[in-house]
Amino acid sequence: MRLRLTEHALPMKAAFPDFPERSITPVPGRRVYLLALGAGVGVANVYYIQPSLHLVQVAFGADAYAVGWVPTLTQIGYALGMLLLAPLGDLMDRKRLILCKAGLLTLALTIGDDVHRFSASKYELIDFIASKLPLWRDDPDRPKAISETNLTSQLCAYLNSASRFSEGWDSLQFKVEESDEHQKGRKIDLVVSPRGSIVWAQGRKYTQYDTLLPIECKRLPTPKGKKRDDREYVINQKATTGGIQRFKAGDHSAAHSLAAMIAYVQAESSETWYDRLNVWIKELDDPTHTGWSTKDLMHIDSSDTQLGLTVLRSLHSREKGLSEIEIRHLWIEMECYLGA
């Protein structure tokens, strides 16, 4: 069907008095091809993501269902863009509209440069730390040390260097003796925080001043002292410095549901300590020790006798109305005869 304009047809201005007048300038042929190419790439961009969905899933640590929404929402956004933005081209100067959109996009990308999605889960972060423990222990440049404070300071320095040059971890930093978020008077031995940027993890915003993962460090065996308890990795009945005890009491990491503990095993094997510590936990399952039960027992996830590295996990109820907290235990055997 073809429409014919007759002498009775109204001029555009008369038919639409509010419609802005604009002069029509012919577009050079080369520019038409360039605009066509840009439009084609823009439309194709809606579909580029589909072959790469598995990469997005790995990078953001998301499940397949969540990632499946990415192309769907992209196409919905594209459709809404045509529906809402295209009419603006008839109401506004198109050149100005394009420049405004380009400026807003540039601003968004600039702001987003300082915002990182924590692509890995916190469990992968713990695995990263665990993988570096043997390398740190065996580093020929590492000064020999025995005390927990010195060992943790060395480990912090090593992890900072390792994370800085590791893809995916370069937005994080490690710090020692940081104040607990809720109990300001208490110090956490080692924490992981964003490195001068904003990190979003599991729907929560973290800045360089926040703790992404709290880590308690202990020596096995516990050093002798007036206020020390041989069972200090688990509990200290002479003070409130027991490792697991602090988490259960809510004195450490009340704002977290996942934490880590590192043990510098300086005598005997990790297997021996595993049996011994679980015996101590079983002994606490009595009426005189409120809140302790066999549910607090540790379980081995992996053990590498060649590397002297054992990874364990435990789940604990907490006081003060707090939800349960999961602790991942990373035990590194410090003796030089390991793997012999």
Largest sheet: 7 strands, mixed
Query: Which geometry do the CA atoms define?
Result: elongated
Please state roughly what percent of the residues sit in beta strands, choosing from under 5%, 5-15%, 15-25%, 25-35%, 35-45% or over 45%. Answer: 15-25%
Given the structure, what is the number of helices? 10
- Helical content class: 25-40%
Q: First CA to last CA: what distance?
A: 89 Å
N to C succession of SSEs: HHHHHHEHHEEEEEHEHEEE
Radius of gyration using CA atoms only: 30 Å
How many β strands by DSSP?
10
Point out poorly predicted stretches. none
Structural class: alpha/beta
What is the element layout, followed by pairings?
Layout: H1 12-15, H2 29-44, H3 53-60, H4 64-85, H5 88-91, H6 94-112, E1 115-117, H7 122-137, H8 148-164, E2 172-179, E3 187-194, E4 198-201, E5 204-206, E6 213-220, H9 243-249, E7 258-265, H10 270-283, E8 299-304, E9 309-316, E10 325-333
Parallel strand pairs: 1-4, 6-7, 7-10
Antiparallel strand pairs: 2-3, 3-6, 4-5, 8-9, 9-10
